[in-house]
Amino acid sequence: MKLNVKFIWAILITIPFLNTQSKEAIASQPEEVTIKFAGKVGNNAFSCGTSYQLGKPAKTVTALDFRFYVSDIALIDANGKAVPLNLKQDGKWQYQNVALIDFENKTGGCVNGTIETSDRVIGTIPKGNYKGLKFTLGVPSNLNHEDSTLAPSPLNLTSLWWNWRFGYKFARIDFENQRTAQATMHKQHQHNDKENGNGFLIHLGSTGCQAETSTQKPATECSNPNTSTITFTNFNPAKNIVVADIARLLASTNLNQNQPNTSPGCMSEPNDNDCAGIMASFGIPFNGISPKPTFFRVE
To answer: How far apart are CA 223 and CA 209, in angstroms?
Structure first.
């Protein structure tokens, strides 16, 4: 039988090409990635109802809540490019590009929370060599002013919603003074932030959102979006976790005092100096103070 030299040569040339295409196809296949978070107070795990010495000077307060939204999660490849994580739409903790991290479990004084907790973000990403992590603390502006009573989970929690600002609380980290903790441990806390004067409350959200009424979406972008982009250049999802550290958040804040005529703690109001150190730790500009994000770290 006479061999067709041209045919054989064409096959030999094609085989390496097919192998290359096969490798590229395999490399482009998405893989599931889990970004783990941990809520801590210094070196100690966060726990509802536990008392901690926090702030400067230190004050004993009892933990009531610890939740926050993250969005636009991405891994950074070897070339420094941020590759978005396609979040798993689980109908509970993740919606579109937003995820809720929730460390409270409705025990102790965490009466405004939920029994279930969530300490991770799960999604898919093309296989690759990733070396870093990038995400935003907060809810994107296109979702921030939806009606929480009609929104899908996890954007349907009224305890993470400001009626009077028609927007979400990107973070809710609440504490009660030790002297009032026992007396109110089993009482339902009011949702009106301005009426709860028993502790130090941290509710992060957008301000300066101009709307005709408090129940309408703002006509323009909020003057103070109060979101923060967090970047870690050295992060391996298989080995590292993101730690949210309340002790760092309050390292330069005096919990023993509250600016007169302002809400207890920090409600993101631009005229409330009690927010200065907190916003800086979140990595958010505030009244001319340059942000130095310290709230998140990698372990």
So the answer is: 6
What the block records as the tokens of 215 is 């129940």
Is pLDDT above 70 for 215? no
In this prediction, residue 166 carries a pLDDT of: 83
Distance CA 297, CA 299 (A): 7
Q: Give the pLDDT score at 266.
A: 96
* C-beta of residue 127 within 8 angstroms of C-beta of residue 178: no
- Are 13 and 94 spatial neighbours (Cβ–Cβ below 8 Å)? no
Q: What is the DSSP string of 43-76?
A: TEEP-TT-EEEETTTTEEEEEEEEEEEEEEEEEE
Rounded CA gap, 102 and 116, in Å?
8
For the stretch 268-277, pLDDT in tens is 999 999 999 9
Instruction: Compute the distance between CA of residue 118 and CA of residue 93 in angstroms, rounded to an integer.
Output: 7
The confidence score (pLDDT) of residue 186 equals: 40
DSSP letter, residue 118:
B
E strand map for 78-205: 82-84, 86-87, 94-95, 98-102, 120-126, 130-137, 161-162, 167-168, 171-177, 199-204
Closest Cα partner for 276 from 256, 296, 259? 259
- Dump strand ranges (E) for the chain: 30-41, 44-45, 51-54, 59-77, 82-84, 86-87, 94-95, 98-102, 120-126, 130-137, 161-162, 167-168, 171-177, 199-204, 228-232, 242-245, 265-266, 296-298
Position 20 pLDDT exceeds 70: no
* Global pTM value: 0.85
Strands 242-245 and 30-41: parallel
